[in-house]
Amino acid sequence: MKLLSFITMGSMLLIGTMGYASVPTDHIVQPPTKPGAATQVSEELWVGLKLYERAFGRGCGACHDMDTNPDLVKLVPTLTIKQFTTILKDGKDSMPAAMMAIMDVGVVKKNKLTETEAVDALYDYLNGRFNGDIPEGKLTKIK
Asked: 140 lies in a domain?
């Protein structure tokens, strides 16, 4: 199981991962500097957001933001990374397998991510949203 640790440094929140050597060691969430400004996130969290928005051409939320389907922000924290990966590879109930759609997203291709890296990014993004570390609303990538 992937463990996340959180360290606050001034106005930045560092989210460190433990348990997988291929996962970047730090994820950063930087709160907006003024009202209406975007929250800035690390590259991996940005990739997770883009996967959520763009998988299957219309994003995971096209189905999972509907009341009749599981809310991924609430569901994913109850799953281990292994369980989440299995569901993405094999599908579950009426959900089709999603791994090919995830690997077809432009940000995955551009960054030449492995399946593990892509799944980790989506998993970390959804967990960050659940924990409140990544707020709803506009996000930008830290440059």
From this structure: no
User: What's the domain range around 36?
Assistant: 3-135
Is residue 102 in a domain? yes
The DSSP bridge pattern shows strands 12-18 and 139-141 to be unpaired
In Å, the largest CA–CA distance within the chain is 45
The pLDDT tens digits for 85-110 are 999 999 999 899 999 999 999 999 99
Residue 141 is assigned to a structural domain of this protein: no
Residue 66 to residue 103: CA distance in whole angstroms:
24
pTM of the model: 0.77
Backbone angles phi, psi at 103, to 5 degrees: -70, -15
pLDDT of residue 2: 38
Cβ count near 9 (within 10 Å): 8
More confident residue, 117 or 3: 117
Domain assignment present for 21: yes
Structural domains counted in the chain: 1
